[in-house]
Amino acid sequence: MSDPATKARQGLRFLGVVPFFAYAALFLLAPTAFLVVGAFQNQEGGFTLDNLFNLANPTIVAAYWISIKVSAASAIGGAVIGLLIAQAAVNGGLPGWIRPTLFTFSGVASNFAGIPLAFAFLATLGRTGLVTALLKSWFGVNLYASGFNLLGFWGLTLTYLYFQIPLMVLIISPALEGLRREWREAAATLGAGDIEYWRRIALPILWPSVLGATLLLFANAFGAIATAYALTGSSLNIVTILLYAQIRGDVLHDKNLGYALALGMIFITGLSNVLYIWLRGRGERWLRRS
Predict the structure, then answer these.
(1) What's the sign of the alpha-carbon dihedral 139, 144, 148, 149?
(2) CB 106 within 8 A of CB 152
(3) Each residue's pLDDT tens digit, 91-109
(4) pLDDT digits 0-9 by tens, 72-83
């Protein structure tokens, strides 16, 4: 039976996490509950399932599909490029100053999004952007005449890669640091080259971490709105822009349908994050056992 002093100390230990739980309740749990309730209400506040049925509208299905494609393309591209950059920085034998510089830049770039990022890409790769003008005047290459459009699918995907790649570098670097040098040396002793080492040893070990990080990048891109809205406006009908139009918008104004759209997004991003946590746990357990 514990004495009052021990109980008091145990109670004080929880004071440090009270702000976290309060923050989570106010800015995560309460808004989510509000969206869930609103998704099952009509304009008069009565219960209805029409909002969920309306998600099958071809326009809404197309918006979800475009968002999924953009998110998947930027996640896969960011995962592959970020993995290669992280491998070069962690195990590539580069000069010592490159690694902290890369990680510092990655920490900044992974959070650089929204209107500033959209403006930066418009000023760089827009129709009158710096790179567009230089390519045309120096090399005779007209990006937009060849089919490129910054306001389209590939333009938005390229913009998302700016923060997806550094985020992948930050996420996957601890897993790369867990690859032991003894494994490579043992593989080399048995006659395995670099390709064999990566195909039979490194990639199977890293696969849960890489796949989990890719899912996290997918969720990160799927929920983005500020960059897409500032860059493309309404020219690319992704689900976050459609959601904004329904809740706050112009001629499209059905907040309860917007809540249903948000509920669908929560389900998709939540599933991605759950799979990420599960895969990350598997990867960490494997490395600890090794």
Answers:
(1) positive
(2) no
(3) 888 888 889 999 999 999 9
(4) 999 999 999 999
